[in-house]
C-alpha cells in the first residue's frame, strides 16, 4: 500500500513540474533547475511553448573572457523564462559604417527553446530537434526572436532552438598559441550543443535526432562543427545556407588574426611583450572598447568585413581544440562527420556588398577608382597569389569585359561578390566531400525574389539584385522588421510552405523532400552535379550550376600559394 502511495506522489510531483500553473505556463526541469515557459501560437494557430533566455554557460565575464565556456550554475526555485527581452552579445553594426554603434551585453550566452510538447513521452514520440546558428560574419547577429522568431517553424512537429554566441574580438581574438587559441564563439556553439544533448528530452526533443542549421557565418559554423572533435556525435544532420568552411571569409589565414590581435592591443594601450600581458590587459578593458576597435581595420567601407574569424588551433591540449587542422586536411583524413548535409547559395548573394555601393555615389566612385586595391582585400586574396595584380586583371576581364564600373554593372558586380564570397566555397566543399566522405549531400540554388528582400538592410532596395544574401531566411522566419507591414502574397506563402516542409522533413528523415514539389531532390555527386533550382517558375532538379563562373574560380584556386605548409593544400 505504501509503495502505491509513493508512486502516486511521484506522479503528482511530475505533473506539477511539467504542467506549470493555471495561466498556461509550463514548467520543465533541466540539469540546472526548473524553467517556466509560456504558451504561444504558430503562424497557422497551432499551440506551442516558448522558453526564453535559458543559460547554457556561465556568463563569460572577468577571468572567463577569452576562455572556453563553462557549464552554467544551477539555480534555486523556478526561473522565469517567459520574457523575450532580445538579449544580444556585444557587437557592432556590420553593414553601414555611418551608423557605426556598439550594442549588446557580454553576459549573453543564452538560448531560446520552442516545443509542441513539454510532457515526458515515450522515445518513439520524441520530436526531431532543429538548432539554428545565426549569421552576421561572426561580428553581429543574435538568436533572439526579433530576427529568428519561431512562428513559422512551429507549424511543424519539431523542437526549435536558437542561441547567442560571442562575437567579434570577444569571440574570436587569437594569438594562435596555447595561451590565446581563439575560436571562443565556436566553442560557445559547441557548449550549446552539449547542453541541448543533455536536456532537450525534457522539452519533448529527441537527443538522437538533432539537425544543426545556419546561414552565412552560421552555415560555415555548421560545416566547421561537422569536422570538430568537440561536437562529434552531438548532431545528426547539417544545413549550411550560404556559407561553408571554404568560403573566402570563413577561416583566418595563418598569422592574420594574430596580427590583428596585436594591432587591437596596441590601439587600447596594452603591452604586447607576450600573450599573457595582452590577455590580462584586454580583460580589464570595457567590452565596448574592445569591440569598437573594429574601425581601425577597415580599408574601404566596412572592408575587410571580418577582422577576427575562426583559426586552426595548432597548440594546446588536443581535447580543447575546436579546429585542430585545416578543414581540407580534416576532410581528406576522414575526420568529417558522415551525416546528411544540405548546402546552397542564392542568386544575388553579392548584393550584401554591392547594394551599399549603389546607395552611395561616393562609394561607387571609390570602387571604380580604387578597384585594384579594394577587390583583393574584399575578396580575401591579397596574400594568396604570387602576382595579385594579375589575378585582379583576370577578374576584370572575366566579369566586365572592358565595361566601366558604374550604374550599368550592377549584375556584374553582384555576380563577382556572389562567386568570390559564396559560390566557389560551396563548390569546393561539395567536390571535396564527395571525393572523400560517404554521405548524402544536397545542393540548392535559391533565386526566388518575393515581396520582401534583405537588399534594404544592405543599403538599397531600388535595384533588382535577385534573391540576395539571406533572402531564403524570409521563408523560415517571419523577420517582421524587414517586412515593414507588407502582407505576404500567395506566392510567398507557397514558398514558405515548401521550404518549411523540406527543412523539417530533412530534420526528421535525413532526406529533403516535400509533397509540394513535383520531383525528388537527388543527392549531388561529382559525376552527376545536380542541384535543386528554386525560383518563381519552378522547384526542379537541374545540373551544372553556373558552369563558366565556377570554372573560372576553380582556375584561380589552382594557382594559390600554399599558406598552410601542407603538400595537399
TrEMBL record:
Carboxylesterase type B domain boundaries: 26-553
Alphabetical UniProt keywords: Glycoprotein, Hydrolase, Serine esterase, Signal
GO molecular function, one term: carboxylic ester hydrolase activity
EC number, UniProt record: 3.1.1.-
Pfam family, one: COesterase
PANTHER family: CARBOXYLESTERASE
Similarity field: Belongs to the type-B carboxylesterase/lipase family.
Name the UniProt record assigns to this protein: Carboxylic ester hydrolase
Protein species of origin: Pediculus humanus subsp. corporis (Body louse)
